Amino acid sequence: MTRNCSPTFISRRRIEAWARPALAVRASAACVGLATVACALCGCGITQGKLLYFLAPWAGPKIEAEFDLTRKGPVLVLVDDFEERFKSPRNRTVLARQVGAELQTHEAVTEIIPQTKVDALRREHAGFEQMSSRELGEKVGAHQVLYLAVRDFYAESQVEEATGAARISVAVKVLNVFEKEDAGKVRVWPIERDGRLVSAELDATEVIRAKTPEAIADHLFEKLAAELARLFYDHRVADVESS
């Protein structure tokens, strides 16, 4: 006996099953709308797009920021290549700018100190190399210093390995510019004395596609900046998996 599949004989249970996804979407949209109105009334300033992102079930669990950078003043991204891993000073500036741009894109900071201020201080201040990172931040008007110490860097066009054909690692610290009395309290994050190690690498295909050492370095800096910035803003598991 064949089952009658005409609309007249479709069971109520099957209709409810088909309608459930649509109802869920409508409910999510309603939640976003109500939350947006509530935020507008209380002045929290969150956008509807951002609300939709965090309420979306397909993005996976929320991962909270490990540390909230200050929003009360500018932050200086300071790249320290004391081991001289970079062959060109250009890399130091490009990496700092890339990290700053990534932080601003995700609203992890309100203001970033331009690297031109650091470059000018480097040229004009005779004792630049003797200044501490905290003092340098104070000189350029920063409230916090996001300090990046380069630990490893390789970005050559000659491919030696299929994976990790190009790589970079930095140790990350956040410094309080206003702490002048106790050197032990200058570092406000992380608890590890040597900082949090953050790394990025390119495979052989990416290196070959980039061609030049400069382009390879720029691509590495983009990946590192994305990985590093996620430490300082709330994001979803899907962000990590897609990077």
List the helices and strands and how they pair.
Layout: H1 12-42, H2 48-55, E1 62-63, E2 75-80, H3 89-105, H4 115-124, H5 133-139, E3 144-154, E4 166-176, E5 187-189, E6 196-202, H6 204-210, H7 213-229, E7 235-236, H8 237-242
CATH topology name of the largest domain: Rossmann fold
How far apart the termini lie comes to 54 Å
The global form is: globular
Rounded average pLDDT: 82
If you compute it from the alpha carbons, what radius of gyration comes out, rounded to the nearest whole angstrom?
A: 24 Å
How many strands in all?
7
Count of discrete structural domains: 2
CATH class of the largest domain: Alpha Beta
CATH superfamily of the largest domain: ABC-type transport auxiliary lipoprotein component
Structural class: alpha+beta
Beta-sheet strand percentage?
Answer: 15-25%
Low-confidence parts: 1-41, 45-49
Largest sheet: 5 strands, mixed
N-to-C SSE series? HHEEHHHEEEEHHEH
How much helicity do the residues have? 40-55%
